[in-house]
Each structure stands twice: as C-alpha cells, then as structure tokens.
Amino acid sequence: MDKVQVLQQNVSAVLGDKIVLNEIKLNELTIVVEPENIVEVLKLLKNDSNTAFEQCVDLCGVDYLQYKNSYTGRRYAVVYHLLSYAKNWRIRVKTFIENNDFPIIDSVVDVYSGANWFEREAFDMYGIIFNGHPDLRRILTDYGFIGHPFRKDFPLSGYMEMRYDEQQKRVIYQPVTIEPREITPRVIREENYCGRN
C-alpha cells in the first residue's frame, strides 16, 4: 500500500460519513464535503494525529458555470489545499456552495489563520461570502470596483474603467469605452535575413 492510499484510509477513518466523495487521481487525494461541515472537517484534519494537516497552503474559489456541457451541479466551489509537515502529505478538500445567487460559506480563519487573505481573494474575485471572516473586503481590486472578475459571466472588458481627470484633479469612473477590434499580425520579410538571398 502506497502513501496516498494510507492517507485515504486515515482520512476515511477520521471523517467517516462527512465525506461525499473520496478519490485518488494523479497520485493526489481529493475529498468532497458538504459546505455546512467544512469547519468541523478542517478541524478534524488538523487536530487528529492520523492526519495532522498543520497548514492550509491555498484556498481558491471555482466557478463551474459553463463547465462541460452536461454539468448541472452547483455553480461555486471552494477548494482547500492542506499540508502536513509531520506526515509529509497533502490533501485537496473541495466543497460546493448551495446558493448560486448568493454564495456563502463559513470562514475557516479560526482553524487556519493563513486562510485570511485567501478568503478575501475568493470574495473579491468570485463574490463568495465567508461568514464570520474578521475583515472581509476587497484585496486585489479597487474599493469602488463593480463585479467579480473571475466569474464566468463577467464581461472580458469589465463594466467600468477608471482614469485620472486632469481638470477635476481626481480619479473618475466611467463606462468602459473599449471597442472590439481585429488584430492582424504583420509579417516582415527581409531579402538578406540571416545571410539568405
């Protein structure tokens, strides 16, 4: 039995029926849990000596809108990547959020303090609300930014643009004025390029 299978057994023993899906692909373990169990699941994975996941190395949002043509599941997911220094193994914990119109899930900052900025980024880019987060505000976009740019239905050119107005001596926002254009590459041919005739 290899290391990932041992991890899979340990995780199954620790979490039991809280796991919706438990699979190994490309020598990595991914588990799926319900969103209402995420805080409890991460506490168990962190504190149980059989798993000992001391650190959340990444947390990201995922938008499954237009994911494969036949996908009919929940639109938003949050994915947690955990690391155990003591056991030298990793796990991916995924949870699909119930409400597609107002995605909300409990914050895990009390379990992994390093998840603070990751949750802020997922909020900023996807609009996922992390209930109980101590300081949930935008982290990558401007405070007045409208929308969430990583959502699949966000327009490629955005809604608003900002520029500095010299007359008003301040930054102003205005609707996007980008016009779609076709770019045709220009080919330059030289007669004696690289010594060729």
Measured by DSSP, the beta-strand proportion falls in 25-35%
Reading off the top of the CATH hierarchy, the class is best stated as Alpha Beta
Determine the number of helices (DSSP H or I, runs of at least 4 residues): 3
Looking at the structure, the CATH topology is: Beta Polymerase, domain 2
Q: How are the strands of the largest sheet arranged?
A: 1-2-5-4-3
Shape, per Cα inertia axes: extended
Notes on the protein architecture:
The longest helix has 13 residues. 23% of the residues are buried. This protein has 3 helices and 9 strands. It has a single domain, classed as Beta Polymerase, domain 2, CATH 3.30.460. By secondary structure, it is α/β, with parallel strands linked by helices. The strands form 3 sheets. A 5-stranded mixed sheet has the order 1-2-5-4-3. The protein is extended.
Features:
197 residues, Beta Polymerase, domain 2, five-stranded mixed β-sheet, 29% strand, alpha/beta, 3 helices, single chain, two-stranded parallel sheet
